Automatic annotation (TrEMBL):
Gene Ontology terms describing biological process: cytochrome complex assembly
Membrane-topology descriptor: Multi-pass membrane protein
Classification via InterPro entries: Cyt_c_assembly (IPR002541), Cyt_c_biogenesis_CcsA (IPR017562), Cyt_c_biogenesis_CcsA/CcmC (IPR045062)
Listed Pfam families: Cytochrom_C_asm
GO molecular function, one term: heme binding
Organism superkingdom: Bacteria
Organism whose genome encodes this protein: Brevibacterium celere
Main location: membrane
Domain Cytochrome c assembly protein: start-end pairs: 126-334
Keywords of this entry: Cytochrome c-type biogenesis, Membrane, Transmembrane, Transmembrane helix
Record's protein name: Cytochrome c-type biogenesis protein CcsB
Record's GO cellular component terms: plasma membrane
Length: 340
């Protein structure tokens, strides 16, 4: 089957366009995170704490608005999910609203790039490393936006947009692969089952890892933060961040388990054995073991929340190692990077 070069070219142009919008969204989110107003339930004046509602009444410039992209999250303010929302205050966060709106626009361009890439070769768009990155980053943004409808996690926006921007840059430079048909080893219906679940797992575990970083920072500087980490005062409580991070990682662990099982079944179909100690198989199992240890440590409470969060970060590091170093430098039956 021939490759539609026009659609492939359009896909590349859409990737570049999405990167531009992601960059602007990242800047907008950065203004909100590093230059926004601190979230404090009260402030001390003359040795007496004043409620936040009183402070806001005295500030004529304060305006109560509902942030459109996270209306559900802000409407639920006051439920105890963050120290700055205990009195149900609604804050003006123009930069965050702009960042989220731009992220939605960028995600539309991004998804269009994935679709045009798929249509250019009339197959699933994850046949090599470039396409895997392209699809995985699109799913990551979608996961973030879905989480955003339930929790106000706009403080992650800088790192979601920035991480996706970096990955897309690598996909069209270091990992770029021209549009082409699948190699014979990948021409199986299992590619439409095994790989999408692996992509979803990667997206979930990445979001969880970013939350783990914020959890560690918030726990370390809960009471007093240096000037260069003053933005941590605008974050929810570390326990709240940890719960969201754990929930997402738990779902990611389940989908990664399915990835491991589906990969073994595909291996039996392709090579007449479920397990062959191939480098990719080994490292996929290593990732599973690390996250199993993370979930076990968290469930048993044998370790403190910070140590458990470090396990989460080791897990995402193993995922990245599995995708980059193992795919590129380790020889094996799973050498499908598409790189020459």
């Amino acid at each position: 089957m021939d490759v539609n070069t026009d659609l492939a070219m359009w896909s590349n142009q859409l990737i570049v366009s999405a990167m531009i919008v992601y960059a602007i969204a990242m800047i907008a989110y950065a203004f909100d995170l590093f230059g926004g107003q601190e979230l404090k339930a009260s402030e001390t004046a003359g040795g007496e704490a004043k409620p936040l509602s009183v402070r806001r009444t005295n500030r004529r410039t304060a305006t109560a608005v509902l942030d459109a992209p996270v209306a559900a999250a802000d409407a639920a303010a006051g439920s105890g999910t963050g120290s700055g929302r205990r009195d149900g205050e609604r804050r003006v966060r123009r930069a965050a609203r702009i960042g989220t709106s731009l992220l939605v626009l960028a995600s539309l361009l991004h998804v269009a790039a994935v679709l045009t890439r798929a249509l250019s070769v009339m197959r699933v768009p994850w046949g090599n490393m470039m396409e895997y990155i392209l699809t995985a980053t699109a799913i990551t943004v979608v996961v973030y936006l879905v989480v955003l409808t339930r929790k106000d996690v706009r403080y992650l926006g800088t790192f979601v947009a920035g991480g996706v921007l970096l990955c897309l840059g690598l996909s069209i430079t270091v990992f770029y692969t021209p549009a082409a048909q699948l190699i014979p080893a990948l021409q199986s219906y299992w590619i439409a089952i095994h790989v999408p679940i692996a992509i979803l797992s990667t997206a979930l575990l990445y979001i969880s890892a970013i939350l783990a970083v914020f959890q560690i920072l918030k726990a370390r500087f809960e009471d007093r933060a240096p000037k260069w980490l003053r933005f941590t005062r605008r974050l929810p409580a570390s326990d709240d961040i940890e719960r969201v991070s754990y929930t997402i990682a738990a779902v990611g662990f389940i989908t990664w388990t399915f990835t491991l099982i589906a990969g073994a079944i595909w291996a039996e179909v392709a090579w007449s054995r479920y397990w062959g100690w191939d480098s990719k198989e080994i490292w996929t199992f290593v990732v599973w073991v690390v996250y199993a240890a993370y979930l076990h440590a968290r469930a048993t409470r044998g370790w403190g929340p910070t140590k458990v969060a470090v396990l989460n970060l080791i897990g995402i590091a193993s995922v990245i190692f599995n995708f980059t170093v193992v795919n590129v430098y380790f020889n094996g039956l799973h050498s499908y990077s598409g790189l020459e």
